[in-house]
Amino acid sequence: MVQAWAALAAGQPLERFEYDPGPLGPEEVEVTVETCGICHSDVSVVRNDWGISTYPVVPGHEVIGRVAAMGPQAKGLTVGQRVGIGWSAESCMHCPQCLAGDGNLCAENVATIVGHYGGFADSVRAQWQWVIPVPEALEARDAGPLLCGGTTVFAPFHEYDISPTHHVGVVGIGGLGHLALKFAKAWGCEVTAFTSTDSKADEARSFGADHVVNSRDRDTLRGLARTLDLLLVTVNVTLDWPSMIGMLAPRGRMHMVGAVIKPMPVIATDLIAGQRSISGSPTAGPLVISKMLDFSARHAIAPQTEHFPMDQVNDALEHLKAGNARYRIVLDA
């Protein structure tokens, strides 16, 4: 039996929950959980903000642990190996997206915490392709948030051939944004951080920002017109979209990884005139996750974390919802 923490209905506090995972599937890997990061997506699924939750919900999709058992068709791993599991736990592995390495876009992709029990538990299972070896050079205790938050902000650099000569802007210095700054700096880019909280300026510079700008200062935003090759939006709130788009250089891209719910007004000519783009992405496939971990190990990139014991998960969730996390929370199993 697996011992876990679950929400039994939308918005309810998590409580102890026991379930029988059944026989290990032929392609499944069982991982003993050592730590599990908390992502805002866990909060959204617990509350059913997106209308996709199935209860009981066992959150947790930033898992670090060790392989405890493998199905007979699982490949590339060994029992006892340290591994990570992120947002995805399974995909079909035969559709065009899976064959191209984009299993996160598979129509049959199974999220680790939606219709599947996640990592706020003593063990969790996933299809072997989505169980990613963790480089020894990474500090395993703090690596969990890289599996989702890190992957989410790393993927655009990989996907869109961002160059070290590019000027990258990052909107929001939070759980995603602070990692985006670290990746952009290690990539070799000129980096500008945009924040509505002036008190975060020094921290933003410590994470890799060359420049820090108040995102509500329209005059300064106008002064940056046509300068950014990539503007990575990590927040989930409405911004001054015309000013944001105006900062894009010719062929520049505004890329959304923050789940902004309200519609974004966009004037087509603002895109056409500079051949600009607006795009978005959800995490990444197994190969990009692995590359992200290798890049993080090579450049000593790690999230700034706060740790809570697993049995204080509700306190940890309240800490996150109150906006007090600096900058990712990790549960120790």
Topology, pairings included?
Elements: E1 2-6, E2 15-19, E3 28-38, H1 40-47, E4 63-70, E5 82-85, E6 88-90, H2 96-99, E7 110-111, E8 123-127, E9 132-133, H3 140-143, H4 149-159, E10 167-171, H5 177-187, E11 190-195, H6 201-207, E12 211-214, H7 218-223, E13 228-233, H8 241-246, E14 248-256, H9 268-272, E15 277-280, H10 286-299, E16 305-309, H11 313-321, E17 328-332
Helix pairs in contact: 4-5, 4-10
Task: Describe the overall structure.
The chain has 333 residues and is of the alpha/beta class. It folds into two domains: 2-148 and 283-332, Medium-chain alcohol dehydrogenases, catalytic domain (Quinone Oxidoreductase, Chain A, domain 1, Alpha-Beta Complex); 151-280, Rossmann fold (3-Layer(aba) Sandwich), CATH 3.40.50. The protein has eleven helices and 17 strands. The protein has helices at residues 40-47, 96-99, 140-143, 149-159, 177-187, 201-207, 218-223, 241-246, 268-272, 286-299, 313-321, and strands at residues 2-6, 15-19, 28-38, 63-70, 82-85, 88-90, 110-111, 123-127, 132-133, 167-171, 190-195, 211-214, 228-233, 248-256, 277-280, 305-309, 328-332. Strands 3, 4, 5, 8, 9, 16 and 17 form a seven-stranded mixed β-sheet that branches. A six-stranded parallel β-sheet has the order 12-11-10-13-14-15. β14, α9 and β15 form a beta-alpha-beta unit. α4 (149-159) crosses α10. The longest helix has 14 residues, at 286-299. It is globular, with a radius of gyration of 20 Å. The mean pLDDT is 97.
Summarize it.
With 333 residues, this protein is of the alpha/beta class.
